[in-house]
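User:
Note these tokens:
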Amino acid sequence: MSLHPEKRGVVPEETARVAKACFPKGNRYIRLRDVLGTLFDDNEFADLFPRRGQPAEAPWRLALICLVQYMEDLTDRQAANAVRSRLDIKYLRLVGTDRSRLRFQRAL
């Protein structure tokens, strides 16, 4: 796996709209994204990846998944299911609501 740094933007418009409607008072992951913004940057992980190879999932997203997994005491499988199904975690990871497939393997 190789690292191809991503230029991070904002939460996709549809994800933000639906998340704000579902959580009008917010929740901890929405507040985490809104207040702190970016916690991790791809460049922090660059030395851990070879220069060539298949692109890896963005390490800043994986770090956020590990943070969620720790905060909620989830197993690897539970964390993978949460990433696929929970809107607040999609918001945290800057992922659109239309993204149904996940390049994230069960074995973290």
Remarks:
- Residues 48 and 79 are 23 Å apart (CA to CA).
- Confidence is low (pLDDT under 50) at residues 99-108.
